[in-house]
Amino acid sequence: MNAPAHTRIGPRVHLLTSSRLTTWQRCPRAHHYRYEAGIVSVDRQSAALTFGTAVHKGLESWWLTIQAGDPGRALEGALEAAEGSLAPPGTEADPYDLARLTALLCAYDARWQSWACGTEVLAVEKAFEYELANPVSGMTAAAWRVAGKIDALLRLADGRVAILEHKTRAGDAGAGSDYRRRLTLDPQISTYFDGVRALGWDADLCIYDVLVKPAIKPLLATPVESRKYTQTKPATKTKPAEEPRLYAGQRETDESPEEYRDRLVQAIGSDPDRYLVHAEIVRTESERESHQWSLWHTARQITETRTAALRAGDVRAVPQNSHACFAFGGSGCEYLSICEGTASARDESRFTKLTTVHPELECTTENTTEENH
User: Fold this and answer.
1) Are 80 and 59 in contact (CB under 8 A)?
2) 213 vs 81, 96, 169, CA distance in Å?
3) Which has the least CB within 10 A, 26, 28, 245, 345?
4) What is the pLDDT of residues 317-336, one digit of tens each?
5) φ, ψ for residue 68 (rounded to 5)?
6) pLDDT-based confidence at residue 10 (cuts at 50, 70, 90)
7) Would you say 205 and 246 are in contact if contact means Cβ atoms under 8 Å apart?
8) What span, in angstroms and rounded, lies between the C-alpha atoms of 183 and 175?
9) Which residues, 6 or more positions from 72, have their beta carbon under 8 angstroms from its beta carbon?
10) How far apart (Å, rounded) are the C-alpha atoms in residues 27 and 42?
11) Are 145 and 13 in contact (CB under 8 A)?
């Protein structure tokens, strides 16, 4: 007799993604809450609709339109998709964030559309999944698979197949910068090369498509107490009288979102190499094998830690890394209050349980949180 479609046969399969790998390496306890228990902070879930997410949504639409052979509508669709992702449902986006978003996407379209039309777009937002294997023995893990999603896959004009990965950042992304040096070591790229191979292509390179957020801020009105005016100049035979006016660099009103957008477009257009970067990264077979070892060891460590926590019935069996609590500044790790003992993971006003720990993948392998405790 056939089993019902929803019945899981065999061992449960866990997915090892680049985000999961990064979280584990940062802090096993944070990994436990996010990927084993499947809980996220209510506040962080809303904040996930960030500027970077909006840019990503816009570029997804842009590349899909290019793939459809309709480049004339690419920018319009990108702006619409991005604006819809800039603020939580039922709220309005900050008009200056929207101006910054619009300026970047307009500049992206102007800089890269001609190049993009010379490529063959093979895939956009394509999920992949492949077996996790021991690099030496070739033995595959029964309970683990590697998964992810590529932003786009292109066949370039010269015939090379390129993985395209969108990134949004603040700060220098130019050649020789610390950011670019980190990209050359980014394990995510190695996962993508193997993932693309599982989809039936052999990638020659990865293009990191970096959009640098301008540090330029909107101009604000000069405080009344700080305003300085020129003196009145009486009329002469050749010139009319001049009324007092603000010194140069001072303003009576805030810069409008439209003025701000236009100023950003001009700034990006005058230095596109600074704000719109294509960084080409390659991976040797040796580097990819090294990454396979990293994935294999990580899966083993997670499994051992999960087993220890289940046997002990105690989250304290999962190690903490206090150095990661404020690794990204701000209010710290979203699970900091649980670790400090000032909040409970079961507090539904503070934390919510995900139905799948990999919502970004629309999972090809079932990976719900129903069995995670």
Assistant:
1) no
2) 18, 13, 6
3) 245
4) 999 999 999 987 667 899 99
5) -80, -5
6) very low
7) no
8) 11
9) none
10) 20
11) yes
Contact between 173 and 179 (Cβ < 8 Å): yes
What Cα–Cα distance (Å) separates residue 225 from each residue in 77, 228, 250? 45, 9, 12
Mean pLDDT of the chain: 89
Q: Where are the alpha helices (DSSP H) in 118-201?
A: 178-183, 187-198
Query: pLDDT higher for 249 or 66?
Result: 66
pLDDT of residue 249: 83
Distances (CA, A) of 45 to 39, 42, 53, 107, 334: 10, 5, 12, 30, 10
User: Residue 138 — left, alpha, or beta (φ > 0 → left; ψ -120 to 50 → alpha)?
Assistant: left
Spatial contact of 103 and 276, defined as CB atoms under 8 Å apart:
no
- d(CA 62, CA 25) in angstroms, rounded, equals 34
Q: CA angle 277-279-280, nearest 5°?
A: 150
Indicate whether 369 pLDDT > 80: no
Phi and psi for 210 in degrees, rounded to 5? -100, 125
Name the pTM for this structure. 0.85
Q: Is-contact 299 205, C-beta < 8 A?
A: no
- Residue 224 tokens read as 């009344």
356 or 88: which carries more pLDDT confidence? 356
Largest Cα separation within the chain, whole Å, is 106
Question: Would you place residue 363 in the very low, low, confident or very high pLDDT band (cuts 50, 70, 90)?
Answer: low
Name the token pair of 200.
């039936």
- The alpha helices in the chain, defined as continuous H runs, are 18-26, 28-31, 42-47, 51-67, 74-84, 95-117, 178-183, 187-198, 257-270, 272-275, 285-312, 336-340
Find the mean pLDDT for residues 181-189: 86
Q: Spell out the residues 6+ positions from residue 146 whose beta carbon is closer than 8 angstroms to its own.
A: 15, 16, 17, 129, 130, 131, 132, 191, 194, 195, 295
* The token pair that represents 223 in the structure block: 């405080």
One-letter amino acid for residue 216 of the chain: I
